[in-house]
Every structure is written in structure tokens, then in C-alpha cells.
Specification:
Blueprint (H helix, E strand, L loop, with lengths): L21 E3 L3 E5 L3 E8 L4 H12 L9 E4 L2 E7 L2 E7 L6 H9 L3 E5 L4 E8 L2 H8 L12 E6 L2 E9 L3 E7 L3 H15 L3
Antiparallel strand pairs: 1-2, 2-8, 3-6, 3-7, 4-5, 5-6, 8-11, 9-10, 10-11
Helix pairs in contact: 3-4
Length: about 200
Amino acid sequence: MGRDFVRDEFELTPLANRNPLTNHFDEMRIVEVVDRSFTMIEARKNCLSICREAISQNLGIELPGISKSSKSGDLAIRWMRPNAWMFEAPYSVLNPLETRLKNFLGDNGSIVEHSDAWCVFDLIGNSCITVLERLCNVDTNNMVSGDICSTRLEHLNCFIICQKEQTEFRIMGPRSAAGSVHNSIITATASVNEF
């Protein structure tokens, strides 16, 4: 991950560890992701075209369509619901994403910092589809890179993001239920892989 993202002695990952956890299986890795910031923007009434243009001009990236993502360098934008998108970028104390967005969107969009609201786990390996079939009812086999889908996982509202067809997926769930989300992923992965 490049550097230690735990910044002081009291800060813990969503799984309540000092450092992010990685679980290794024969054909899979489950990686707790902690080095990303998340900011939600929602275009205000009659301001969608203004938001689209401002984001395109200032970030060099277009807002994605339904259930899709856009990516430019380290920045990803994911469609979440009508007129609302999640911006994902490397975590930065010095230049928070929320501040950058507010500087050029002004009152045209509602902007909320979401970094501490999510737990994020990357599933990497050849068994992703089989594992995800045990976790949710999303047709992950037909997802392509950048696709995002809202689903229920362990009775929790989560998002499944295809990072790379068949072999790399990201699961975003509520931080308050990180242990439950992680446990369900580990249980499903263990059912098809060996430690």
C-alpha cells in the first residue's frame, strides 16, 4: 500500500486493527482497503449540466452513466443513484477531495465526505465469481470493468464494483458492520478455497 495510513495511535481500520488486514487463500486474496477517500456529490435541482461541465473542466473526467464508473489516473467516479455520484481518490490530509470539489462546484451540488462511512474489501483471484455467487444475487459473471451494482449482503446494503472482469472486485459496505461484511466474505471464500 505504499505507506502506513494509520495516522495516530488511536486510529484503527474498520476491522479495528492498527493496519489493514489481508487474508490469503489458494486462489484468492481478501484485502481491507483503507487508503482511499470517498466523497458523495448530488447535483441540485436544475444544476446537473453545470455540475457535469464543472467536473469535466476541473478534473478532466466525465460523470458516468447508470451503474457505471469513470476513471482518470487515481480518481474514480461511480454512479450511485440518479444525479448522485461517489468520488474515490487516494486519501490526502493536505488536499481533501471534498474541499477540491466544493471549490469549483459551489452551490450547484450537495457534497458530503463519506470516507469514514464505508468499509472496503478487494477480492482478487480466480474464484471471485464463485465467491460472489454465494454472497449476493448480482450477475457478476457479466460485469465489466467499472460496473457497479447495489445489492444486499448479509442483510446489509452494499455495493459490488468490478475492477477487472472475473478476477478483481471491490465490496463497499457500512463501516459499522465491517466485521459482518468481512466475515461473510471470508466464509464464502473458505467454502470454495483453502487457506
